[in-house]
């Protein structure tokens, strides 16, 4: 890097991914080529330690200049004023933002825009499903999964361990939303023990007890198993689905809406923000504006796979031909809800901990779903939310 | 209880460290194993104790063959050079330990209960009495409840003895038990062990490399070298009739002088002087055998067997003084003989000096020429080739008196 | 007048003489200053910071903005049932680590102490786990504990203990044992090395004396070997205790303190509070509590070993 | 006699099995074809034809870079620890000065401080010193934890150096520093090696700081690299295991070479009671 | 270069280990510091070397006060008991080290460059020559390039000497340099050090607790006890005219007997026998002062000064034999005197035994009654209270001959 160049660091967990990471770096490189006075340097922080690392760095008055957060961390960072408002950089009217953009503004100020969003839907190995067709209802789903569990294969896989608390939360949220539940009311009133939530938790438990999952296996492993053709179904986001297809050529995958009574599912919504500690806000802003241009957005969406970006970008026919299941994911967009307790976003990490803990008690400790969620509700109201 | 070793050999791998040693001592003897470092003294002792196996040969104790028994089956006590006291036990416990072990049952290993039982044995009247009598005998009563590390060297030594005595074993084995003490204490403890032997009896086997200890304590000395026995006899035999030049020079300070000489009939020729052999002296027979009637020998004379006279007087040997040292009541004078070889080593490497001791302060000076008279009252003759004793005479030829083994007059 | 009345002492062992006092004041200063300064900057100052944090309410995202809350953090911790679990888990973890790794280490050391062909190689090989990086160890054990394809599951199935699919790392009753197995595998070689070294210090004469006195093997061990190695074992206990109190990477990578907090030790709890809940104040309080426990353990150790020394007449 | 011998031999073999098995298993796993990884019956032997996994591990991940970084950190930590520890170790062993006890206690204290506890304040210091995102920063942070141990061990060894040798050097006209460098250090070389190993391991293994202080890809160390596979999306198990083996092997081999010194150092050093 | 200690005192904290010691030796003397373990010998030597500071008092070397100088400024060489060779350097380096240090610059600490310079000094003709001449003198030439651990005890000893000699210091200080060697080698090295002193001259200060070493090597002996000087004189003075009972019993093996006696005019009464004092004997004056004309003294007699006679004969003292030990050329006999107290310790704790040595093998038996003749040829008289010598006579009263300090006839 020659002197005089302004260096902007950009952290995103994607950079650590096999495949997508390299393509994303190449995408950043096109900006660098076009702007000789600025160099955007990708910072690779693995997904598992992304939040802790970034927060430590931000707390220590440092950190990357541009950060792609997951939604929970985004709210925490905004609450702590660790990221800058960027209303001066990104003007609402200039871009054709998707509907998810509403979550990017807090108290009327914009703190970022969606870098990527991804919907959740079911992916499945048709070859492993008896009959080859995806389930429509939850009962059907359980029966099919049970039937597919044989010869060392599993019908379904999801996360249910503390070690993967984050992923567990997303999987759980899908069940809860799928049964019509929400973590909280829009005004922030917690509803962790509402009947719908409890029904979702009960369903989670049903799956857990049905002996159709490779218990204790972590996501990396069961996804691997999935593309080795050992797992019939999973509910996962589009980004993952993209990776699975790119790896698992031998087992063409298909997608279908999640087999729940309600269409709502969680979504990945990852805002890109500017660190409040940055010394190069100008340059960072320039990069962000560059990335919002339709062409860059188009490229970004393509390389991210079954995900959407900040503005509405139509899928190209080639893409659809290569990955016919994209339609299923795209169709889910209107039903995607961020996997956070609305109004309680800043407390998300602790809330997740409490809820996951209680659900684990349901799964493993034999506690009734209702009792556990009552306890979660109690703890969250009395302990988490009682804090200043 | 007699101790008998029969053709005992010990090898460590290819290395033979004890080579076919046989010896036998009767009841109540005090056998000393003497020799330079590494000659195998400890190894013999450890084989008797059962701490090493024998490679071949047999060991008998009181007529019973023991060499296949484990140490605990041999009824011997061992006193180690470093005493090997149990550091975390009081003196009382140390002494009582062998007695407790004698009554040990496997379930004493069970933590609390076992400890209770052990304490009970320790406090039983017999054990207590025995320990206290032993302590009393060794003047340890006052320190019974102290730990070894708070004791002086001499006291530790006595605790080690106590631990050995309390078992009333049939043999006491001691491996250089005094070598950790300073000179003064060593002298005192020497006498104590001797007296212990006289009091309690039994066989003692005592390892040392200190000739003074060996001479003053042993009733029998086995002098070893490189794993083989050089001489086995009473201290007096060993001093006065050393079996070979090695023994001759090992025993006695300063060591015996070995002077090149030739025996011819009843005379011995040293350099140019011809001295008559005294009555009753044994003469070498080898010379006779060789037909010449002459035998080349080393004439062994203790440093006190010389008289210093003015040079050239009578039959004296000519020499010059090379060193004068005054040691208390006597002076030691090195004299370089002219034209006469002497041996400073058992292997006969030649020099030409002799060491002479004279009583009182000698006024001689280095470089002075002197004459040396040889007094052939007691002397030894050694074959120059084999180094074996071939003749000589003891100051008082005790073997003819039939008093072998009665040298220690203390009883 | 007995000959022993004025017994000269056995020659004292060479007194390690402190160097004479002619070194000026600056010599020690010059020798010690760099490291003292270094430790002050990189350990002392952060420690003070931590203490200060522990009496504030501070977010990880904005550590410069404190709200002083006094000992509120500590009070809440002490009332928090989750924290009670943390203390319980930490205690179990530490005690089992100490007992098992020392027990196993002792066993290994005793095995490796005797003479047998290939002893040198065996001594070297047995210490391999100690050289393996904890991250790698955690990974392989996670795989071995895998519910479907892990060796432990296969083994349990083979032995008929489970019908398969036992979720070792995610079953509240198995997670801590699984973590313990991993930890002990890593650290027992260290104990065995230390104990082995201590065993070399057992005078062979003492063993032989006990044998001649008629002691059997176990008695020899209790009468001679154990007293000699006890100080080393005691120090080992201290070190393993302190290290167990602060062990992080293995546990974090394997369970992150779960399931249901069953492997949530002090350090894991500290880390989670700091980096997941972003609550630096509370996390610092947890750290200080841990530190106090470590210091108490240390003092207990010194007190006990002093007492033991007194009892054996060393002082 | 024979019976106890075989019994001991069997016990030793069992012990070695326990000690070595997990690493062996790691190796086997790394060389198991991925479709067989998820089969219900485990394969106990490596499939040697899979050896390409190792080549892949180098090409598909930044393993080479990670190892180099780890090596730099480990070597730097070792050098700095020893450089810093020699003089205070000597002072603790030989000199009388005020605050000696305090220094001794402070050194022990560091053994009680979890890295996780200090990482936040240290981050702050590092920001101010511009040490973030540098291997030097990692070296400095690691050294803070190794210097006390190394000092301890060296002190133990220096205690064992007869003071007469030093006095001889003083009479021969050597300065204090000269004594330490020219006389004492060569004498404790084996312990120095032991201390070096311990510092090296710490640097090689360290995880928390490396994860927090380094955000630049090209500066990532192997511990973080390997840990990043945990909970990741899609890296195959056998690649992870291969990386694990490659990461573990240098440490183990290095250790086997120097283990004699380590044991000696332990004996003479701080650990002996 | 004369060495002078003036009222030197040394305390470690509250403990005074050297109490006001003054002594002075002239050029080329061989001063031996003698005394039991812990009496402070090493401490004095280390103060002279500068390894310890003095608490008060002064030390002068060749008229120059040195007690405030650092060790390297005093121009002394020190030979340690354990030799303190640098184990990682070859013999050559060990010997050259002091020479290198003499030319040392601070920047020699810089790794590679420093080593280069050090090597250059080492290879310079002067240093090389000096080292080789020294090695030659000590017969070390062949081992110059070996490391100390491959050398025998005697060779190491000589390397240590070489390292001291090469600097050509004005004083050689040696702290028990022979105590690590075995008896045989010790005797040989004793002679070597004596000869070294004769060859190179200069002051030697030599610490030992072995009286034989002190007597044979020293031209002056300073006998210490508990940090205070007991006697300072030539070996002969100390042997023949011990200043007090402590010295009397410290020097000589077996030690001098101290027998309760009373001096009255020209006679001394021991028990019931009254013996005339020989001509030229000093008599105590204290008795005269006390007005009674009698003084109660300890009569100091060496073991050889007795004759054993049948009981009751002449003026002999009556006693019974309690122990007979045969030590080479003489026998040691303990005799319990009837009704006469003796002192076995310098502090006069009473017993009633004397130790008698007679030449040859004694046939006496324990329990036999004997008479003891006292030969008052050389004896000492000590005050019973203070223990100080108050009279006596040397075998040949050398002090009157004006030959003090000329005892060592080797030159
Ligand atoms: N376990 C062993 N393995 C091999 N060689 C041994 C062993 N024990 C002793 N030796 C060798 O046997 C020889 C005799 O040893 P031993 O200990 O009996 O000598 P020693 O006469 O007692 O000597 P010291 O007076 O030094 O104690 C020595 O050369 C020694 O090296
Ligand atoms: N550094 C020290 N601190 C405290 N006391 C000491 C120190 N050095 C020596 N002493 C004490 O001073 C006394 C004299 O010691 P020193 O070493 O001079 O005796 P020594 O005559 O040389 O004895 P040895 O023959 O055993 O070497 C001893 O009581 C010793 O314990
Ligand atoms: Mg021996
Ligand atoms: Mg001394």
UniProtKB/TrEMBL annotation, chains B, E:
Classification via SUPFAM superfamilies: MOP-like (SSF50331), P-loop containing nucleoside triphosphate hydrolases (SSF52540)
Name of the molecule in the record: ABC transporter ATP-binding protein
GO molecular function: ABC-type transporter activity; ATP binding; ATP hydrolysis activity
Record-stated family: Belongs to the ABC transporter superfamily.
InterPro entries per the UniProt record, alphabetical: AAA+_ATPase, ABC_transporter-like_ATP-bd, ABC_transporter-like_CS, ABC_transpr_MalK-like, ABC_transpr_MalK/UgpC-like, Mo/tungstate-bd_C_term_dom, NA-bd_OB-fold, OB_MalK-like
UniProt domain ABC transporter: residue ranges: 3-251
Alphabetic keyword roster: ATP-binding, Cell membrane, Membrane, Nucleotide-binding, Translocase, Transport
UniProt GO BP: carbohydrate transport
High-level lineage: Bacteria, Pseudomonadati, Pseudomonadota, Alphaproteobacteria, Rhodospirillales
Pfam families: ABC_tran, OB_MalK
Organism: Azospirillum doebereinerae
GO CC annotation terms, alphabetical: ATP-binding cassette (ABC) transporter complex, substrate-binding subunit-containing
Superkingdom of the organism of origin: Bacteria
From TrEMBL, chain C:
Cross-referenced CDD domains: TM_PBP2 (cd06261)
Coiled coil: none
Domain ABC transmembrane type-1 span(s) in chain numbering: 87-301
Membrane-crossing segments per the record: 26-48, 91-112, 124-145, 174-199, 220-245, 283-306
Record's signal peptide: none
Compartment annotation: Cell membrane
BP-aspect Gene Ontology terms: transmembrane transport
Keywords: Cell membrane, Membrane, Transmembrane, Transmembrane helix, Transport
Record's bilayer topology term: Multi-pass membrane protein
UniProt GO cellular component terms: plasma membrane
Stored Pfam families: BPD_transp_1
PANTHER family, per database record: BLL4140 PROTEIN, DIACETYLCHITOBIOSE UPTAKE SYSTEM PERMEASE PROTEIN DASB
Family of this protein: Belongs to the binding-protein-dependent transport system permease family.
Record protein name field: Sugar ABC transporter permease
TrEMBL record, chain D:
Membrane topology recorded in Swiss-Prot or TrEMBL: Multi-pass membrane protein
Taxonomy, superkingdom: Bacteria
Transmembrane segments: 7-27, 66-90, 102-123, 135-158, 179-201, 237-258
Keywords: Cell membrane, Membrane, Transmembrane, Transmembrane helix, Transport
Keyword Transmembrane in record: yes
Pfam family, one: BPD_transp_1
Cellular location(s): Cell membrane
Domain ABC transmembrane type-1: 67-258
GO cellular component, one term: plasma membrane
Entry annotated with the keyword Transport: yes
One record GO biological process: transmembrane transport
PANTHER family: INNER MEMBRANE ABC TRANSPORTER PERMEASE PROTEIN YCJP, MALTOSE TRANSPORT SYSTEM PERMEASE-RELATED
Similarity comment: family membership: Belongs to the binding-protein-dependent transport system permease family.
Protein name in UniProt: Carbohydrate ABC transporter permease
Protein's organism: Azospirillum doebereinerae
Lineage: Bacteria, Pseudomonadati, Pseudomonadota, Alphaproteobacteria, Rhodospirillales
């Amino acid at each position: 890097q020659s002197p005089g160049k302004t260096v902007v660091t950009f952290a995103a967990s994607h950079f650590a991914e096999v495949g997508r990471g390299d393509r994303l770096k190449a995408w950043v490189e096109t900006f660098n080529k076009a702007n000789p006075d600025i160099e955007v340097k990708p910072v690779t922080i693995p997904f598992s330690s992304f939040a802790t690392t970034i927060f430590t760095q931000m707390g220590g008055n440092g950190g990357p200049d541009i950060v792609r957060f997951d939604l929970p961390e985004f709210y925490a960072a905004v609450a702590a004023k660790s990221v800058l408002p960027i209303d001066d950089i990104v003007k609402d009217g200039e871009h054709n933002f998707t509907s998810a953009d509403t979550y990017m503004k807090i108290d009327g100020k914009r703190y970022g825009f969606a870098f990527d969003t991804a919907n959740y839907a079911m992916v499945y190995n048709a070859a492993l499903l008896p009959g080859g067709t995806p389930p429509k209802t939850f009962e059907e789903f359980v029966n099919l999964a049970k039937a597919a569990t044989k010869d060392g294969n599993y019908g379904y896989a999801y996360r249910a361990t503390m070690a993967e608390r984050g992923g567990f939360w997303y999987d759980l949220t899908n069940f809860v939303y799928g049964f019509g539940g929400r973590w909280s009311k829009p005004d922030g009133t917690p509803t962790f023990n509402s009947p719908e939530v409890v029904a979702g938790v009960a369903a989670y438990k049903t799956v857990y007890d049905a002996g159709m999952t490779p218990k204790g296996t972590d996501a990396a492993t069961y996804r691997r198993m999935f593309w080795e053709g050992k797992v019939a179904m999973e509910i996962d986001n589009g980004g993952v689905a993209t990776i699975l297809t790119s790896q698992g050529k031998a087992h063409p995958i298909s997608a279908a809406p999640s087999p729940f009574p309600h269409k709502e599912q969680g979504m990945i919504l990852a805002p890109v923000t500017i660190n409040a500690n940055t010394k190069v806000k100008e340059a960072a802003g320039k990069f962000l504006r560059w990335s919002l241009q339709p062409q860059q957005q188009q490229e970004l969406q393509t390389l991210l796979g079954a995900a959407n970006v900040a503005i509405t970008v139509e899928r190209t026919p080639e893409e659809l031909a290569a990955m016919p299941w994209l339609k299923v994911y795209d169709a889910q967009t209107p039903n995607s809800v961020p996997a956070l307790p609305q109004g309680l976003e800043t407390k998300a990490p602790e809330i997740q901990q409490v809820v996951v803990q209680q659900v684990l008690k349901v799964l493993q400790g034999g506690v009734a779903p209702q009792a556990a969620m009552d306890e979660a509700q109690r703890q969250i109201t009395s302990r988490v939310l009682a804090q200043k | 209880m007699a101790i008998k070793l029969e053709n005992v050999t010990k090898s460590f791998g290819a290395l033979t460290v004890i080579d076919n040693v046989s010896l036998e001592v009767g009841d109540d003897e005090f056998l000393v194993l003497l020799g330079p470092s590494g000659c195998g003294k400890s190894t013999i002792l450890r084989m008797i104790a059962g701490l090493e196996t024998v490679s071949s040969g047999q060991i008998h104790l009181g007529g019973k063959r023991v060499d296949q028994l484990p140490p605990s089956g041999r009824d011997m006590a061992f006193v180690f050079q470093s005493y090997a006291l149990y550091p975390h036990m009081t003196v009382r416990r140390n002494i009582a330990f062998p007695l407790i072990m004698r009554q040990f049952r496997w379930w004493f290993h069970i933590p609390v209960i076992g400890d209770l039982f052990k304490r009970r044995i320790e406090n039983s009247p017999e054990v207590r009495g025995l320990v206290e009598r032993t302590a009393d005998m060794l003047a340890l009563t006052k320190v019974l409840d102290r730990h070894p590390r708070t004791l002086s060297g001499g006291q530790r030594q006595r605790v080690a003895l106590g631990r050995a005595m309390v078992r009333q074993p049939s043999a006491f084995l001691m491996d250089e038990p005094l070598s950790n003490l300073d000179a003064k204490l060593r002298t005192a403890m020497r006498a104590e062990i001797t007296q212990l032997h006289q009091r309690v009896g039994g066989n003692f086997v005592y390892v040392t490399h200190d000739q003074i200890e060996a001479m003053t304590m042993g009733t029998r000395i086995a002098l070893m070298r490189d794993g083989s026995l050089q001489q086995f006899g009473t201290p007096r035999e060993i001093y006065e009739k050393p079996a070979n030049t090695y023994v001759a020079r090992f025993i006695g300070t300063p060591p015996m002088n070995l002077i090149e000489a030739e025996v011819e009939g009843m005379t011995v020729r040293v350099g140019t002087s011809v001295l008559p052999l005294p009555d009753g002296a044994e003469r070498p027979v080898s010379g006779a055998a060789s037909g010449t009637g002459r035998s080349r020998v080393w004439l062994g004379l203790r440093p006190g067997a010389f008289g210093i006279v003015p040079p050239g007087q009578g039959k004296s040997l000519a020499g010059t003084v090379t060193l004068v040292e005054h040691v208390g009541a006597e002076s030691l004078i090195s004299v370089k003989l002219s034209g006469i070889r002497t041996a400073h080593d058992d292997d006969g490497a030649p020099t030409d000096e002799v060491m002479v001791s004279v009583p009182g302060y000698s006024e001689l000076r280095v470089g002075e020429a002197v004459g040396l008279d040889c007094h052939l009252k007691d002397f030894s003759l050694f074959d120059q080739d084999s180094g074996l004793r071939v003749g000589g005479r003891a100051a008082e030829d005790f073997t003819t008196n039939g008093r072998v083994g009665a040298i220690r007059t203390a009883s | 007048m007995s000959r022993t009345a004025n017994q000269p002492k056995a020659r004292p062992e060479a007194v390690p003489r402190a160097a004479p006092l002619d070194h000026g004041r600056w010599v020690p200063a010059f020798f010690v200053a760099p490291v003292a300064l270094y430790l002050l900057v990189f350990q002392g100052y952060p420690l003070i910071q931590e203490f200060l944090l522990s009496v504030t309410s501070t977010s990880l995202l904005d550590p410069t903005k404190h709200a002083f809350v006094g000992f509120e953090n500590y009070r809440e911790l002490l009332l928090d049932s989750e924290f009670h679990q943390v203390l319980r888990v930490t205690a179990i973890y530490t005690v089992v680590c100490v007992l098992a790794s020392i027990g196993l280490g002792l066993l290994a050391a005793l095995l490796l102490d005797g003479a047998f062909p290939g002893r040198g190689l065996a001594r070297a090989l047995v210490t391999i786990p100690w050289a393996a990086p904890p991250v790698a160890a955690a990974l392989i054990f996670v795989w071995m504990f895998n519910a479907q394809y892990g060796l432990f599951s296969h083994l349990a199935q083979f032995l008929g203990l489970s019908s398969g699919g036992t979720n070792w790392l995610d079953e509240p009753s198995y997670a801590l044992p699984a973590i313990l197995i991993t930890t002990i595998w890593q650290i027992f070689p260290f104990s065995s090395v230390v104990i082995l070294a201590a065993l070399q210090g057992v005078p062979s004469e003492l063993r032989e004396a006990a044998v001649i006195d008629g002691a059997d093997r176990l008695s020899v061990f209790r009468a001679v070997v154990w007293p000699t190695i006890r100080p080393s074992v005691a120090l080992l206990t201290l070190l393993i205790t302190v290290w167990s109190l602060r062990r992080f990477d293995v546990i974090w990578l394997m369970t992150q303190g779960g399931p249901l907090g069953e492997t949530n030790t002090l350090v894991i709890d500290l880390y989670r509070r700091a980096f997941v809940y972003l609550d630096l104040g509370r996390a610092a309080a947890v750290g200080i509590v841990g530190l106090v426990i470590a210091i108490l353990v240390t003092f207990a150790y010194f007190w006990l070993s002093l007492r033991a020394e007194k009892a054996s007449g060393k002082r | 006699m024979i019976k106890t011998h075989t019994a001991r031999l069997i016990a030793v073999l069992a012990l070695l099995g326990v000690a070595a098995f997990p690493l062996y298993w790691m190796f086997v796993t790394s060389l198991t074809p991925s479709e067989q990884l998820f089969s219900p019956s485990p394969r106990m032997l490596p499939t040697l034809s899979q050896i390409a996994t190792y080549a892949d591990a180098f090409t598909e991940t930044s393993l080479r870079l990670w190892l180099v970084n780890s090596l730099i950190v480990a070597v730097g930590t070792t050098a700095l620890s020893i450089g810093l520890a020699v003089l205070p170790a000597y002072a603790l062993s030989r000199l009388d000065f005020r605050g000696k006890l305090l220094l001794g206690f402070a050194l022990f204290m560091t053994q009680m401080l979890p890295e996780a506890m200090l990482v936040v304040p240290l981050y702050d210091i590092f920001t101010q010193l511009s040490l973030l995102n540098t291997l030097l920063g990692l070296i400095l942070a690691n050294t803070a934890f190794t210097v006390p141990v190394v000092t301890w061990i060296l002190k133990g060894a220096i205690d064992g150096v007869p003071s007469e040798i030093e006095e001889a050097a003083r009479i021969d006209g050597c300065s204090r520093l000269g004594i330490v460098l020219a006389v004492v250090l060569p004498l404790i070389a084996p312990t120095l090696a032991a201390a070096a190993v311990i510092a090296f391991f710490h640097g090689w293994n360290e995880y928390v700081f490396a994860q927090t202080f380094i955000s630049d890809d090209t500066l990532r160390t192997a511990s973080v690299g390997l840990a990043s596979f945990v909970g990741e999306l899609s890296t195959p198990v056998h690649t992870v295991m291969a990386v694990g083996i490659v990461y573990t092997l240098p440490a183990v081999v290095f250790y086997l070479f120097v283990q004699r010194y380590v044991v000696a150092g332990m004996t003479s050093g701080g650990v002996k009671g």
